[in-house]
């Protein structure tokens, strides 16, 4: 296939025998483009551009602006490919191609035809959408109604589409599709409606390669009890089924609405699974595997190589979907292929991404109180009974839990700079009261079972921080307190300037 989108400069980098499967490996090296949601396979959100420095950043001015016309939560960034910016909106998931050489003039627009009454009422939380992806001359749109659409990047015309699930049972899509090599990986949202989470892989022609669930029988999860490991040990046969009571796993959550990353060297891709359903832990005793879990899967087959469950038997809605950032760093005198994850539960995890070995697990917010630490040998959190909503029971309001359900960091992505070796993390500083109650499952109806109230930690005057984190030591290097929660993502640059935003302000730090 001719690679129409490569610039002349980039094409000179490619060898004549380069196949389409190698396309993104080349394209992500072009500093003038942003060809995937995180900028690169590793999810570092790092730009090698260095023109903006700490000395001239004060001179930045708006060149032009563009209104999408949709006044709901915008999450995820645009793509930039050879002078064209591809912009997405929340529901109804409009896609615009803007000409960057002509002040953002619209080159084409695509607006899906989706059923508002079926889809929007079951979306959580807000009608957000986290971005587009590119591959082989196509822009991939993962619509809210679970339809994956391939658009011709030059015209916006649909090439193919596939609807994989049904909003009538609460299944929706808020995450970006992710293109790795010759596969398109999509997840599913709807844990608050009892949707059973999964990832689905498509080939570039729109055919389905495989589907792998988060919970349930080994064959449906693409897990092998003998070869799939957790904490370096085989998980054993029916590891998920044995951790649920009865058939609760069938409506067990573990949805997959976060950011994904990929390592071409190992051919493994990484993602997190969300909270178990329902939020009332009394109704689902057990570890609820493999919700709240980091998965490492083979891209070609979908088989899970290793899993790590961060919050077994989640009692607080600490969704485990946050991005996994892949870096190669020296760790205790040895170069390691690392994976770093800042979880909603307030712990930052550093793992060997080849084996799944847990290397570091430390608080990245000093107010975390539901667990004192994580045992590096077992991987289990050392919980504080006072804050256990299951122990305190149904219809009991457990107070003062930190962090709140929205986490010390939600899906808003962190960045990594290879120049400094540090991670730059937008965080929340919020605690909560949590009261579980009994709830009955009805398809397409909310399946939550808890009442929450949220507030700042006692004595705090700010709801957020922007921190620099050393993942090898497990410590904060510096912190910028913010009045409001830092709900933006972060961008690190080669000029040692990092950018983020808050409610009302755009920031840079160096």
TrEMBL record:
Q: Which residue pairs form cystines in this protein?
A: 124-125
SUPFAM superfamilies linked: Quinoprotein alcohol dehydrogenase-like
Single GO molecular-function term?
Answer: oxidoreductase activity, acting on CH-OH group of donors
Q: Name one Pfam family in it.
A: PQQ
Which keywords does UniProt give here? Calcium, Disulfide bond, Metal-binding, Oxidoreductase, PQQ, Signal
Please tell me where Ca(2+) binds in this chain.
192, 275, 317
On cofactor binding, the record's note says:
Binds 1 PQQ group per subunit.
Q: What is the residue range of the signal peptide feature?
A: 1-21
Q: Which Gene Ontology cellular-component terms appear in the entry? A: membrane; outer membrane-bounded periplasmic space
The annotated active site, in chain numbering, is: 317
- Pyrrolo-quinoline quinone repeat domain segment(s): 34-360
Q: Which cofactor does it need?
A: pyrroloquinoline quinone; Ca(2+)
InterPro entries this protein is in? Answer: PQQ_MeOH/EtOH_DH (IPR017512), PQQ_rpt_dom (IPR002372), Quinoprotein_ADH-like_sf (IPR011047), Quinoprotein_DH_CS (IPR001479)
Which NCBIfam families does UniProt cross-reference here? PQQ_enz_alc_DH
Into which family does the record put it? Belongs to the bacterial PQQ dehydrogenase family.
Q: Which PANTHER family match?
A: QUINOPROTEIN ALCOHOL DEHYDROGENASE (CYTOCHROME C), QUINOPROTEIN GLUCOSE DEHYDROGENASE
Tell me the protein's name.
Methanol dehydrogenase large subunit protein
**Annotated organism of origin:** Methylophaga lonarensis MPL
